Amino acid sequence: MEWLNFRHLYAFWMVARAGSFTRAAAQMYVAQSAVSAQVAALEGYFSEQLLVRGPRAVELTPAGRELLGYATSIFAHSRAINAHLRDKQAHERRSFRVGVVGGASRNFVFRLLEQYTRSAGGVHLSVSTGSYAELYELLRRFRLDAIVTLDPPKKKDMGEVSYRKLGASTLCAVAVPGLLAELGLRGAGQAQGKRARTKRKPPARSRAKKKTKKTTKKKKKTKPPAARAEGAGPVDVFKFRHPFEVDVVERYVQPLFDRPLELRLDTDDVPLLRFYANSGKGLTVLPRVGVLEDLESGAVEAVELTDCPEVNIYGISMRDAVPGEGDDGPLGLWASLPPI
After folding, report:
1. Mind giving me the DSSP string for 248-272?
2. What is the pLDDT of residue 63?
3. H helices then E strands: how many in the chain?
4. In this predicted model, what pLDDT tens digit does every residue of 1-42 receive, in sequence order?
C-alpha cells in the first residue's frame, strides 16, 4: 500500500487557504518552487489536477475542493491532538474570528458573541463586517472561523460548509409614540410597546368638579385621527432591504394605514434604520430585534406585520474547521440561544 505524503498534502492545504503559491511559501518559510513541486507531486499521486492558477488567485478544481475538506479535517484534528496531549501547560490565548453581514442586527450579534464567550471561556473575539460574498471568500480561505448572515449557503457550497439557522425576527412598522395614530392607523393594526401609558383616575371630588365645569363650558369638537388623515400627504417610509418575493410595504404595511405611504429610503443597515425610527420623521419598517431596547424603554411603538415573511439569521462555518467545540464548531455553541 502506498501511503499519502502528508508534507505534500500540507503544501496543498496551505496554498488553498492562502489562495496563492507565493503567500503559502512565505507562511511556510520555504521557497515557492518547493511548494509548487510538492503540490505537483500530490497531483501526480492522485492523477488529478487540484489547483488552477487564476489571474488574481489560485482556484480549486472539483477534485481539489473535495480534497480540501479532507485536509481541513485532518489538520484540524492534528491541532486538537497537540492541544490535548502536548500543549496541556500552554496558556496561549485562543481566538475566534467571525464575519457579520451588514443587515444582521447588532442586538442579535451581541447576544451571539456573549453566548460564545460564556461557553468557550477566555476567547479573544475578532469581528469583521462586509458583504456575503466578501465574508464567504474569507471563510473559504480560513481567515474567518464563522460568518453570520441573512442567507443560507449557496447550493454549490453545501458540501464544504456546516450551517445552522440561529434565529428569526419578525418585521414591524415602528414610529415614535403617538405618531402611528396620527398617521391614520386603522383598527386592524394595534400599536405594541413594552411600556403602556395609562392615565390615573383623579379623586372623586375633582371628578365631580370637572363634571360641573363641562356643563357650562362648550365642548370642543375634535376629529378622530382617521378623519384628520384624510386628504393629508403621503407618509415617508424607511425600509429594511431584503430580497423578499413580495413588496412588504405595499402588501403588509399600507393596508394598516389610511394615509398613503411613500418609500424614501431602503437599506440593509439596521442601526441606521433605528436612528430613523427614533427621529419621528416617518414610519420605519425593520426587524423587531433591531429596536428591542427602544420598545422596552417606550421610545418607540411598533405594529406587527401579520403573516409577513420573517428575517432569518444563519451561522456558517467550514466543515470540521474547529473540532472539539460541539457537533458543528461554534454553531453548536449557539444552538441554545433563546429565541428573539
Report:
1. HIIIIIGGGBSS-EEEEEEES-HHH
2. 92
3. 13, 12
4. 578 888 999 999 989 888 889 888 888 888 889 999 999 999
What pLDDT band is residue 335 in, cutting at 50, 70 and 90? low
- Rounded to whole angstroms, the Cα distance separating 163 from 320 reads 12
Residue 106, C-beta contacts closer than 8 angstroms, at least 6 positions apart: 270, 271, 290
Give, for 130, the enclosing helix (H) or strand (E): strand 123-130
For 71-95, the three-class secondary structure string (H helix, E strand, C coil) is HHHHHHHHHHHHHHHHCCCCCCCEE
Do 314 and 163 touch, CB atoms closer than 8 A? yes
Residue-wise pLDDT tens digits, 168-206: 888 999 999 888 878 777 654 454 443 333 333 454 454
Describe the strand order of the beta sheet including 123-130 as a list of residue ranges.
Answer: 123-130, 94-101, 146-149, 311-318, 161-169
- 317: cell is 462555518
Which ranges of 175-328 does DSSP label H, i.e. alpha helix?
Answer: 179-182, 204-216, 225-229, 248, 270-279, 292-297
Residue 88, C-alpha cell as written in the block: 496541556
d(CA 129, CA 221): 55
Q: Tell me which amino acid residue 166 is.
A: L
Percentage of residues in the chain having pLDDT higher than 70:
74
What is the pairing mode between strands 171-175 and 283-287? Answer: antiparallel
What is the rounded distance in angstroms from the CA atom of residue 193 to the CA atom of residue 139? 39
Inter-residue contact 162 to 308 (CB < 8 Å)? no
When computed from its CA atoms, the radius of gyration of the chain, rounded to whole angstroms, is 29
What amino acid is encoded at 287 in this protein?
P
The three grid cell numbers given for residue 282, joined into one nine-digit string: 416617518
Task: Please classify residue 243 by burial: count the beta carbons closer than 10 Å to its beta carbon, then call 0-12 exposed, 13-18 middle and 19+ buried.
Answer: exposed
Q: Is the pTM of this model over 0.90?
A: no
Segment holding 149, helix H or strand E: strand 146-149
Q: What confidence tens digit (pLDDT) does each residue in 65-113 have?
A: 889 888 888 887 777 676 566 555 444 556 788 899 877 888 888 888 8
